[in-house]
Design brief:
This protein is an alpha+beta fold. 29% of the residues lie in helices and 22% in strands. It has 2 domains: 245 residues, Glutamine Phosphoribosylpyrophosphate, subunit 1, domain 1 (4-Layer Sandwich); 201 residues, Rossmann fold (3-Layer(aba) Sandwich). The strands form 5 sheets. A 7-stranded antiparallel β-sheet has the order 3-2-4-1-10-9-11. It has a 6-stranded antiparallel β-sheet with strand order 5-6-7-8-12-13, with helices on one face. Strand 9 and strand 10 form a beta hairpin. Helix 4 packs across helix 5, helix 9 packs across helix 10 and helix 9 packs antiparallel against helix 14.
């Protein structure tokens, strides 16, 4: 998952893009980058790290211009060590193109070979985003062939991209001297929306919170398969560029990824999480009588709406039993030392009075590897809990994700190939209650505004094993899963290692 933004304005945009990236920081903490345009020249700064660390005053002063792009990266393909794979990416022909991308291409390997042998383009990194940029550049070159560029040429190029590229991709690109292009894959798996300020500046971003938080009231979501071309005067041109567009957004956005104050494809993320708590409560009472529960405690952060609603419906007190440490420092490697992985207990501390002598129901948004859940259950017992029940607002995560979430391989998923009781034994709780897949889909859909475009279904592949693009074999999924981004084995990418960007 990544966060992307693009803006065209009548004033300098460097601070605006920086502010938008801060609002999207929860979508990626590995690297950040901004590119701006002045007099058809691009100015770029990107590096590994979070937004507040990557950009200093001197960097911001070196980003002039009234249009630009930005990205925060959470790597799911390629090499997380490489500074070169921070975005935006740039090619100088045709026109000069820079691009930021959120998603994951499922046919990147074959496209890379095709680009080299047929299109005579060279890919210099392992990033699928560089592949996507070169496909777009080639299609733009084909449509213009030396002629002036107009909106219809841009839309024809995007149509060509849709015909060649598979997987998930929300894209914002800047064409030197012409404007900004934004488009979304024909399934709309990853989110993208745009808004306009009172002064007429147009912003495109991954989530509505970035628009609203920077003074660009949301106009609408970009439709699946649709492309927007925003010229340098701020005029928005739009066209559907796919013959087979169908809206299947990733349901994990609503479960965990997106900020609660965002609206995606007409669905309030916060309301969706409240609804998940309601359906989870119905499932809970059939397995654990509410009379056996003394208190409901969320596991920070994004489970709070679900836990609040669940506690209300079963008539039990909601309490904060864990406090998240916002300032967990780096682990420094000293001579003669191995890398020390930080424990969950450094990231969370318990309020013992909420656990002592009580039967506690812990609520989490989802359970992936199970290692964090197991340690949290142990912390609750150590704090004096008599019984520890665990409820997940999402169903069991049984399958890898290939559309842009860094989901582990089958072997790392605690629920893969196991019964719920087997998972319960691994985690060590007294009862384990999961959300139902269909109930989850209904709960999220019920948070949708009636006025918004219809959603045909969700990509819920990590829960149900159904991959909505329909072009993947089991071998493909296995290859992509085991070819995930190269990262340090000691790196901690759990939710608890991140700052509180998802505070409810």
């Amino acid at each position: 998952m990544c966060g992307i933004v693009g803006v065209i304005s009548n004033a300098p945009v460097n601070q605006l893009i920086y502010d938008a990236l801060l609002l999207l920081q929860h979508r990626g903490q590995d690297a950040a980058g901004i590119v701006t345009q002045l007099d058809q020249k691009f100015f770029m700064h990107k590096a590994k790290g979070m937004v507040r660390d990557v950009f200093r005053t001197r960097n911001m002063r070196a980003l002039p211009g009234n249009s630009g792009l930005g990205q925060v990266r959470y790597p799911t393909a390629g090499n997380a060590y490489s500074e070169e794979e921070a975005q935006p990416f740039y090619v100088n022909a045709p026109f000069g193109l820079v691009l930021v991308h959120n998603g994951n291409l499922t046919n990147a390997k074959s496209l890379k070979a095709e680009l080299f042998s047929t299109d005579h383009r060279h890919i210099n990194t392992e990033s699928d985003s560089e592949v996507l940029l070169n496909v777009l550049a080639h299609e733009l070159e084909k449509t213009t062939r030396g002629l002036p560029l107009g909106p219809q040429d841009v839309f024809a190029a995007v149509r060509g991209v849709h015909q060649r590229v598979r997987g998930s991709y929300s894209v914002v690109a800047m064409i030197a001297g012409h404007g900004i292009l934004a488009f979304r894959d024909p399934h709309g798996i990853r989110p993208l929306c745009y808004g306009v300020s009172e002064e007429g500046a147009v912003m495109v971003a991954s989530e509505s919170v970035a628009l609203e938080g920077t003074g660009h009231p949301m106009v609408r979501d970009v439709a699946p398969g649709e492309a927007l071309f925003i010229d340098l005067n701020g005029k928005v041109h739009a066209q559907q560029c796919s013959d087979h567009a169908v809206l299947n957004p990733c349901i994990f956005e609503f479960v965990y990824l997106a900020r609660p104050d965002s609206t995606l494809d007409g669905i309030s993320v916060y309301q969706a999480r409240l609804n998940l708590g309601e359906t989870l409560a119905k499932r809970l009472v059939s397995q654990v009588p509410p009379s056996e529960i003394d208190v409901v405690i969320p596991i920070p952060e994004s489970s709070r709406p679900s836990a609040t609603q669940l506690a209300h419906l079963i008539g039990k007190p909601y309490r904060e039993g864990f406090v998240k440490n916002r300032y967990v420092g780096r682990t420094f490697i000293m001579p003669g030392q191995g890398v020390r992985k930080k424990s969950v207990r450094q990231k969370l501390s318990v309020i013992k009075s909420e656990f002592q002598g009580r039967n506690v129901l812990l609520v989490d948004d989802s359970i992936v590897r199970g290692t964090t859940s197991r340690e949290i259950v142990m912390m609750a017992r150590d704090a004096g809990a008599k019984k520890v029940y665990l409820a997940s607002a999402a169903p069991p995560v049984r399958y890898p994700n290939v559309y842009g979430i860094d989901m582990p391989t089958n072997e790392e998923l605690v629920a893969h190939g196991k019964s719920i009781d087997e998972v319960r034994e691994i985690i060590g709780c007294d009862a384990l209650i999961y959300q139902d897949v269909e109930a989850m889909k209904r709960a999220v859909l019920q948070a949708k505004s009636a006025a918004r475009p219809s959603i045909e279904g969700f990509d819920a592949s990590c829960f149900d094993g159904i991959y909505v693009t329909g072009d993947l074999s089991e071998a493909d999924i296995e290859r992509m899963s085991h070819g995930r981004v190269q990262q340090s084995k000691s790196a901690d990418h759990s939710r608890l290692s991140l700052p509180n960007f998802n505070d409810e």
